[in-house]
Amino acid sequence: MYILGFVFCLISLPLLASPTIRSQIYEIDVAKNPQEDTLILLTNGAVAKTQPGKSAILDLLKDAKNKSGTYDFKLDKNRYILDVTPSTEQEESTSLHLLDLEEPLTYIPTTIASMDVAKRYFKEARYNPKDSQCFNRAMVWTYEWWRNHSLKSNKILIYFSRTYIRRYNFEWWFHIAPYVHVKDQDKVVERVMDVKYGRGPIDFRRWTNLFVNKDPECPVITKFSDYADYPYSGECFIQRTNMYTYQPADLQMNEAWNYTKDKFIMKEVKQAYLEAFDETI
Fold first, then answer.
1. Least CB-packed of 37, 82, 246, 273 within 10 Å?
2. DSSP type of residue 93
3. Average pLDDT for residues 96-120, to the nearest whole number?
4. Would you say 136 and 275 are in contact if contact means Cβ atoms under 8 Å apart?
């Protein structure tokens, strides 16, 4: 697929441009073959690595994961971790007392009147050429469409299997973007609105083809555990969710506590504006 190398290049830019990444650790994937790298999946979606035989740094990373803190990861140009230190700016983990665990109202997305209107919304979405995190861009776009047009959109996640990540030395384990329901002639269709990588509203398969080599069909899952419990299966999965979802951690909470966000969390919105568009609101 001719566009794949271009997208790979775009995805790699944040890591090449920023030798230090601030994040928490989602998972540590130790290779079955002792000659292969260990993958460090970060909560911001990036995949860092450690080389075989680097037991000291691996022990440090395992300790960091157990403590669930935020760390600064210093990487070389090939995404190998050179050093890890506790961050001076710790992320606050979500506590049960902050959550409304009552059953949320049924989420009903807006159906956009026509494809022309969907294209207009796409074109008016803000774009910043700086390197940024996908979940922050998606949060700003959905928030502004809701604020400016009362548009209740959705989000779609693509997860990459460990098998795929290892085969292609892939740099991310998930990507998230908004999608909308659009009335197109006599039927309602779903179209992804990924302003960073697309040129307009596109269907799911065309969107996943931007990121996945050889264009496989990514099965649709309904629970995060359908990916997390089978991390080596297939090459990719996609999952639908509502516009309030920020990161995969929200979908883990949905399974663990039956909690579904039913509003924008302004702390997350403000963080998204600052990281993705250098704007304080």
1. 82
2. P
3. 77
4. yes
HEC profile for 119-168?
A: HHHHHHCCCCCCCCCHHHHHHHHHHHHHHHHCCCCEEEEEEECHHHHHHH
| Mean pLDDT of the residues in the chain | 89
Which pTM value belongs to this model? 0.88
pLDDT tens figures, 29-59 = 998 898 999 999 999 999 999 999 888 899 9
Amino acid occupying residue 161:
S
At 172 the pLDDT is: 97
Q: Please provide residue 98's backbone torsions phi and psi, each rounded to the nearest 5 degrees.
A: -90, -10
Cβ neighbors of 155 (< 8 A, separation 6 or more) are: 138, 142, 176, 177, 178, 179, 240, 241, 242, 243, 245
Answer CATH for 4-86 from 1.10.10.10, 3.40.50.2030, 2.40.50.340, 3.90.190.10: 2.40.50.340
CATH: 3.40.710.10, 3.10.620.30, 3.40.50.2300, 1.10.10.60. Which one for 111-277? Answer: 3.10.620.30
74 contacts 81 by C-beta, under 8 angstroms: yes
